[in-house]
Specification:
The complex is a heterodimer of chains A (about 120) and B (about 110). With about 120 residues, chain A is an all-beta fold. Chain A is built from no helices and eleven strands. The chains are: A mainly beta (about 120), B mainly beta (about 110). The interface between A and B is medium-sized, with 27 and 24 residues.
Chain lengths: ~120, ~110
């Protein structure tokens, strides 16, 4: 089974702190994604990566950065956390598509609270 | 642009009732369509998918048919159980190697015994 793990289920940080959210997948997938999930807004894409060291902005990248130094690991960084970044963060991975359509596999999520 | 619209929740049903959750989409070209489910305290998992017009996806008693003429992908189940209580997300994949998805806002289903 594909497994996507996230470093923490719950995290509480203070305004202005630098926050690292880690995601690891064990299926050798090329694509990895970070979303945030908020009530009434669904899932919104923050950043995605299609290869090691490659990244592209999603729909809401402001206030976030990412790092992908190894294929299995994709990190989301909040350089200076703010209260409006309190949310559920979900990581996902999927194989390279080519001509086929593949599902995304999700981790359990990290609920981040910024005080 | 591409978008997904799904019915607002919460939807509250009694056990064994019939379920419909509406989903419509706007897209250029021919997207693939998905339903994901999120059980309490968990991440999302794929429930079913359809990759072309008139395809029917099915899993665990749930079904959805890709209707190009009405740009819809409504989720149905004939008899819901308490264990189906979850948030359901409709999504589309508008193609490309990166497999990016656009999600609807989610519909909370609560099934009462």
């Amino acid at each position: 089974d594909v497994k996507v793990t996230q470093s923490s289920r719950y995290l509480v940080k203070r305004t202005g702190e630098k926050v690292f959210l880690e995601c690891v997948q064990d299926m050798d997938h090329e694509n990895m994604f970070w979303y945030r999930q908020d009530p009434g807004l669904g899932l919104r894409l923050i950043y995605f990566s299609y290869d090691v060291k490659m990244k592209e902005k999603g729909d809401i990248p402001e206030g976030y950065s990412v790092s992908r130094e190894k294929k299995e690991r994709f990190s989301l960084i909040l350089e200076s956390a703010s209260t409006n970044q309190t949310s559920m963060y979900l990581c996902a991975s999927s194989p390279f598509s080519g001509r086929a359509v593949h599902e995304q596999f999700f981790g359990p999520g990290t609920r981040l609270t910024v005080l | 642009g591409n978008s997904v619209t799904q019915m607002e929740g919460p939807v509250t049903l009694s056990e064994e009732a019939f379920l419909t959750i509406n989903c419509t989409y706007t897209a250029t070209g021919y997207p693939s369509l998905f339903w994901y489910v999120q059980y309490p305290g968990e991440g999302l998992q794929l429930l079913l998918k359809a990759t072309k017009a008139d395809d029917k996806g099915s899993n665990k008693g749930f079904e959805a048919t890709y209707r190009k003429e009405t740009t819809s992908f409504h989720l149905e189940k004939g008899s819901v159980q308490v264990s189906d209580s979850a948030v359901y997300f409709c999504a589309l994949n508008y193609g490309g190697a990166t497999n990016k998805l656009i999600f609807g806002t989610g519909t909370l289903l609560a099934v009462q015994p």
